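Troubleshooting log. The previous structure file for this entry was overwritten by mistake, so regenerating from the original sequence record. Sequence copied from the archived sheet and checked twice against the printout by T.R.
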Amino acid sequence: MLRTLARPIVSLTGCKSASTTSGIRPGTKYGGKTTVTLIPGDGVGPEICESVTTIFKEMSVPVEFETIDLTKHTLKDEGAFNMAISSLRRNGVGLKGVINRSADFRHHNVEFRGNLDTYANVVRCMSFDGIKTHHTGIDLIAIRENTEGEYSCLEHESVPGVVESFKVITREKSLRIAKFAFDYALEHKRRKVTCIHKANIMKLSDGLFKQCCKEVSELYPTIDYDEQIVDNTCQQLVINPQQFDVMVMPNLYGNLVSNLAAGLVGGAGVVPSKSYGSEIAVFEPGARHTWMEMRGMYVANPVAMVLSSAFLLKHLTLHEAGDKLIQAVKLVLNKETCKTRDLGGNATTREMTRAILEELHDLYA
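Regenerated output below.
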């Protein structure tokens, strides 16, 4: 029997549109089970989502998945996209793979975030003892503003051969993501927030973002605050990544920094993430790759999706189940007896899943 624990809610003054992670409703319940929207997506998404559903079934967690078949092919039908949006709004929580860009060049992952206003993407990059990398002791959080900046897809060809791309930064959304970052740091007992920017060149847009982060930092005297230019950040991540704790940044920089940080701890296969709106939480791998070339081969590493699902369980206040799942994943990785191709081994997706289940059985024994 899994215990359900209440999660403390952090109540702080600041910009009115921000919310902490614990302030989001935990999902829709029917018959004692929470319904979670599951969108496997393209590429290896269905295979690594199969790992999650298998593990959840074995753990007997009170979660029921509402699966939506949403890929770049089904997106030709606008109804499929609308169905997925409706499901996420109804359930309030989802587990999602990556959707490839469709032939009409629409980027549906961006549309998802815009439609649902899941404005805060949180990527956790942490070292595992069993994964040999250049650095050890990394445990950083990259928080990315998810709804504006260069990723707004606001571009057009004004005259043949000339393309204009708009970068929009607003005070309202900059304050919102800054407050989210400090609330997250406070709630998770983190010591420092670093604002990542390029205000030395983009003095107005990134200057506004930096100014908003500075303003919000003054409301949190117990949390250290500093700033770094994004190109220096990339260099510092390679040289001394342990200096970073919580990092907050505009959209494009968040994509670059989180993928770089993922490479430092073992790659896309081991980094989880979550995206929060005021009413919705979506959990997905932190490095958004579909791995189309490996589709159907069952050789992809499911750890990023499994860890994302563990954080989903904790979001649903199923803390014991979530913590044990995280512990089981760490035990598998640290024992080094089961490694998928990306980690230098030859284990299949299902073999990695079975290894995690074996550790879970021992933890619950």
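Residues 1-19 have pLDDT under 50 and may be disordered. Archived copy saved in two places this time.
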